[in-house]
Design brief:
With 574 residues, this protein is of the alpha+beta class. The protein has 3 domains: 237 residues, TIM Barrel (Alpha-Beta Barrel); 95 residues, Jelly Rolls, CATH 2.60.120.260; 122 residues, Galactose-binding domain-like (Jelly Rolls), CATH 2.60.120. Helix content is 17%, strand content 31%. It contains 9 helices and 34 strands. The strands form 9 sheets. It has an 8-stranded parallel β-barrel with strand order 4-5-6-7-8-9-10-11, surrounded by 5 helices. It has a 6-stranded antiparallel β-sheet with strand order 16-27-17-23-20-21. α4 links the parallel β6 and β7. α4 packs parallel to α5. The longest helix is centred in the first third of the chain and has 19 residues. The chain starts with a strand and ends in a 6-residue tail after the last strand. Pfam families: BetaGal_ABD_1, BetaGal_gal-bd, Glyco_hydro_35. Belongs to the glycosyl hydrolase 35 family. GO terms for molecular function: beta-galactosidase activity. One of its GO terms (biological process) is carbohydrate metabolic process. Keywords: Glycosidase, Hydrolase.
């Protein structure tokens, strides 16, 4: 077992320095797990670390998924085959720029539930999840012959709360399921005290100034074995902001200083991957900032798994420290030949509602969570009685809304807009009023962690509420489109085309001329695009393609200037 004593880490009584890299299996198609782990091993690393997101494995209450991309057990097995140790972080909350920090959105159906504390209802849900997950993980503990040497209790909890009873409850659940490996917490240096337990290992997260960071920890936990559980070597991107990069020299300098202090470390991220489907998170400080689809993170491997200069720099430093490394040839990976794909069929979402949505009626509008929906879009429809110009309050709409009166587009609202009221003309005595709302990703960090989506309350129109609403939930899970009964020309619209592949290879979907929406390949949602950037292409990994015909679909929300898209060999992240 891994133990902490005399300021150091020991495994089976022998000193161990953990040289780890973060790889999130849930951001990588299963067919590429082995490749990414092999490159980690070749880089001089002896350990792989991964979060385990609750919402990825229990997307609906009581529906547990551990197959395909969700097969964390297989990921652990592959690491073991390569002789890597494994650190697991199955915290209720992971942050990770992941939707709601990994907490499942169905928790929000209970208005009285409180997250990340000793609320008995929250702990009961967590226990039911752990009752399924932990028996699977228990098998792979080092003490039972497996590669897993440590488990995280909670993640950056000091930046959220200080409920020690909550942390102790999670620890107790681990012990009840026979988890005997070393337990730890991780926080920023100035937040570690409220976020950790006195008698469990405290690790730190930072991107620079390691001397100051470990001095801060030493003040209240003298002699604690030093480990940076997240050495941030890059950063994530938000829509409308520049692409973040960090040069290799800076990365290497901090790494060497940390190693010279005898510290263990985990590079965050060794390989970032992709926020497929609707799993991107968001941050909210002064404004709401949703994370882009790419989680390239300027990591040691690119989003598509290519070796970088930063990888070579870190590998060289680790080799100097005596780590086993393997030189990987500078080979350009196979790419699909560049081509244009015509999207020859299209249909308004309003004409194919019956095949892509689930309908519900209620006196008042329901939030997305009350509709038992976690991600995607909701179309709200009601009848407004009254002719003339009326003010419509917009701040009940999260996150981006398109407004229509009698089938005619009127206005687009985004929650960051300073204008919160719009005057709209209702031309008839009785009018159909529709609001199409996109959930652009729940906040994954801080005090806005528990926000709801859709219409979060009734809409105030002309100094009154309107009642009796229809709601259509659209989650884009392998949508079946009806192109035969087209009467509506409004956006959002679905577009569909196909292309043939002889040998599947990686490619990137270029969306010049398209504004905002999602791309699906053979029914799999690659994620979001938005013309404001920085990301201009979506990564399409080879395992999602098939020999022969491949179907590509686009849900465009706002408009387009071309009937085609392109598959290109290189990414454009801005």
């Amino acid at each position: 077992m891994l133990e902490t004593k005399e300021g150091s880490l020991y495994l089976d009584g022998k000193p161990l320095r953990i040289i780890s890299g973060s790889i999130h299996y849930f951001r990588i198609v299963e067919g590429y797990w082995r490749d990414r782990l092999e490159k980690l091993k070749a880089g001089g690393f002896n350990t792989v670390e991964t979060y385990i997101p609750w919402n990825f494995h229990e997307p609906k209450k009581g529906r547990f998924i551990l197959e395909g991309m969700h097969n964390v057990e297989r990921f652990i097995q592959l690491a073991e085959e390569m002789g890597l140790y494994v650190i697991l972080r199955p915290s209720p909350y992971i942050c990770a720029e992941w939707e709601m920090g990994g907490l499942p959105a169905w928790l929000l159906k209970d208005p009285d539930l409180r997250f990340r504390c000793s609320d008995p209802v929250f702990l009961a849900h967590l226990k039911e999840y752990y009752d399924h997950l932990l028996p699977v993980l228990k098998t792979y503990q080092y003490s039972e012959g497996g590669p897993v040497i440590a488990f995280q209790i909670e993640n950056e909890y000091g930046a959220y709360g200080d409920d020690k009873t909550y942390l102790e409850a999670i620890r107790r659940m681990y012990h009840e399921h026979g988890i005997r490996e070393l337990l730890f917490t991780s926080d920023g240096p100035d937040m570690s005290k409220p976020g950790s337990l006195r008698d469990e290992w405290t690790t730190l997260n930072f991107g620079s100034r390691p001397e100051e960071a470990f001095q801060e920890l030493e003040k209240w936990k003298p002699g604690e074995p030093r480990m940076c559980m997240e050495y941030w070597i890059g950063w994530f991107d938000a829509w409308g902001h520049p692409h973040h990069t960090r040069d290799a020299a800076s990365t290497g300098d901090v790494l060497k200083r940390m190693l010279n202090m005898g510290a263990s470390m985990n590079v965050y991220m060794f390989h970032g991957g992709t926020n497929f489907q609707f799993y991107n998170g968001a941050n909210h400080y002064d404004t709401y900032e949703p994370t882009i689809t790419s989680y390239d993170y300027d990591a040691l491997l690119t989003e598509s798994g290519e070796i970088t200069e930063k990888f070579r720099t870190v590998q060289r430093i680790l080799a100097e420290e005596g780590q086993d490394v393997e030189m990987i040839p500078e080979e350009k990976p196979a790419r699909l030949s560049e081509r244009k794909v015509e999207l020859s069929q299209s249909v308004s979402l309003f004409d194919t509602l019956s095949t892509v949505s689930a309908r519900r009626k209620n006196v008042t509008p329901l939030t997305m969570e009350e509709l038992d929906q976690s991600y995607g879009f909701v179309l709200y429809r009601t009848t407004f009685e009254g002719k003339g110009m009326f003010s419509v309050e917009l701040d009940a709409m999260q996150d981006r809304a398109f407004l229509y009166i009698n089938g005619v587009y009127q206005y687009t609202y985004y929650r960051n807009d300073t204008k919160k009221v719009v005057d709209l003309f209702f031309p008839e005595e009785s009018n159909t009023f529709e609001i199409f709302i996109e959930n652009m990703g729940r906040v994954n960090y801080g005090k806005y962690l528990s926000e709801r989506k859709g219409l979060i309350q009734n809409v105030w129109i002309g100094n009154r509420y309107t009642f009796d609403w229809e709601m259509y939930s659209i989650e884009l899970e392998e949508p079946v489109l009806d192109f035969h009964h087209q009467t509506d020309e409004r956006f959002p619209k679905f577009f569909e085309g196909s292309f043939s592949v002889e040998t599947p290879a990686d490619t990137f979907v270029q969306l010049d001329g398209w504004k905002k929406g999602n791309v699906l390949i053979n029914g799999f949602n690659l994620g979001r695009y938005w013309e404001i950037g920085p990301q201009k292409t979506l990564y399409l990994p080879a395992p999602l393609l098939q020999e022969g015909e491949n179907k590509i679909q686009v849900l465009e929300l706002e408009g387009h200037s071309t009937p085609s898209l392109s598959l290109v060999p290189e990414p454009d992240l801005g």
